[in-house]
Specification:
Blueprint lengths: L1 E3 L5 H13 L4 E3 L7 H7 L7 E4 L2 E4 L1 H11 L10 H35 L6 H22 L13 H14 L11 H11 L2 H16 L12
Parallel strand pairs: 1-2
Antiparallel strand pairs: 1-3, 3-4
């Protein structure tokens, strides 16, 4: 099975971690942003990461891919069967894919992707506004809902933890984290989830890539 994309994308990372937690071997092939060739185009007709191929079956979108993997490899169960727990898991997956990505994408996109990958100017005001206005309400929410168990649903690892932690892993590559003094529960939860072997090796590689490309671009302080 082939996953097309880059794990700097939280969506691609989500799929790779999900597969690792399943014990399923997934081959990652670089793709996206105009790269990937005809196989990627066949799997992802609109060029969005990740694309996926299993034999003659092709699909795109991280949520569609993990749904396929869950159905094909039902154990260990990462999308709960119990109705309320399943609904909660899908809710957290959606929160990650839309709300957290709206904030994280603006920050990472402006401070790293535009200047380091696309060789374009960073809109520092947009990045700062996302970090100031969009991210704190999401962290406030997580701080309230993370259970004592340290897992978002059913007191065990599920897709919910994988999906929500993934965009924060990307932000961590450019030094944006949940402040432990303000969000102690969230910071501890993230530390635990990202330390899992399924995440840790990928995140280490992503951090090395970001550092090798020059890291985040920050606004130069005005002279006094």
């Amino acid at each position: 099975m082939i996953v097309f994309g880059s794990t700097l994308s939280p969506y691609v990372r989500k799929v790779m971690v999900f597969g690792a937690e399943k014990g399923v071997e997934l081959e990652l092939r670089p793709a996206g942003m105009g790269h990937g060739g005809p196989e990627f185009a066949a799997a992802s007709p609109f060029g969005k990461m990740p694309g996926f191929q299993d034999g003659d079956f092709r699909i795109a979108d991280s949520s569609a891919i993990v749904t396929y993997l869950e159905a094909k490899y039902p154990e260990p169960n990462l999308i709960p069967a119990e109705p309320r727990a399943r609904a909660q898991t899908i809710w957290f997956d959606e929160v990650a894919d839309t709300l957290i990505m709206a904030a994280g994408g603006a920050i990472f996109g402006q401070r790293f992707v535009r200047p380091r990958v696309l060789k374009q100017e960073c809109d520092h005001a947009a990045a700062d506004a996302a970090e100031r206005d969009l991210l704190p309400p999401l962290l406030d929410y997580l701080e309230k809902v993370i259970p004592e168990s340290g897992y978002l649903v059913e007191d065990r690892l599920t897709l919910a933890d994988i999906a929500v932690a993934s965009p924060f892993a990307t932000l961590g590559c450019i030094g944006v984290k949940a402040p432990a003094d303000r969000y102690p529960r969230t910071a501890a939860w993230l530390e635990t989830i990202l330390a899992r072997p399924s995440f840790a090796a990928i995140v280490a590689r992503d951090q090395a890539v970001v550092a090798a490309m020059g890291g985040a671009v920050r606004a130069t302080p005005a002279a006094a």
